[in-house]
Amino acid sequence: MLRFLFWLLDSRATLRRAALATLVANIGIVITGGLVRLTGSGLGCPTWPRCTDDSYVTTREMGFHGVIEFGNRTLTFLIGFIAAVALLAAWRQRKQVPGILAAAVWVLLGIGMQGVIGGITVHMELNPWIVATHFLASMVLIAIAYLFWYRTKEVPPAWTAPKAIRTGGVLITVVSAAVLVLGTIVTGSGPHSGDTRASRTGFDPAAMSQLHGDAVFVMVGLTVAMWLGLRALGAPLRVTRAAATLLAVELAQGVVGFVQYFTGLPWPVVILHMLGACLVWTSTLSLLLSLTPRRSGQAAEDRDHSLASTA
What we know:
This protein is mostly helical. The protein contains ten helices and no strands.
């Protein structure tokens, strides 16, 4: 049995699937966290790490909101388990896949840190700035999980993008991050606070939505320019496709954003918008990484050996 377990952990397919499961799970808990807020269940468990002063689990008296909030907390343990399995597989294959172990470790540590931030959020009674920090920390964790999964892929054929293109990829990533930050401010200014006791930022929601939308338009323009530039350069299909995918996801997300704004923020559409935010972010990372040359394991070993010889 133990030999079979080691064989399973030594499989590149297992590592890749575990890394993908980690990424999907971290996106999933963003969605369930949004459901907690949108159903007004943010303080369904009014304390942390207990659900009440006397119980670690929800009670019948806490009703629907307690079940929703406690269910979201419980998912953290499932995600932690998935990340732990992925870490074991990464440790077994750390020599074959350079950099994979560090990414797996950071994912697991990030999940633990997110639990702490979630506890602070509850104790601060859903302060909108702490809630925003909680969401943005999830985006950082998703980025690490995406990098973890990306490193399990086979190394693609080498292609060195021109410096201007690489700079454009970084700029798109920065603007994408800004869009996420502005999105949290819009949320913190709007009606879905998570609980009637939660405070708001005090900003005008319409003004914040306009600023958020302006940043989205900038990002779309940059992405169109990137796609056209890659096509003009005759870039590999995988790179051009990454830009086209990002553009398509941005446009779809923009449609959802307009729909939720003009229909009064119905919670199913808001949930879809949160999923879209995660997809825009991962598509941004896909484009950025496609513009960054990767070294194969053998190439890395050769380079390290060369550096050691000249030292």
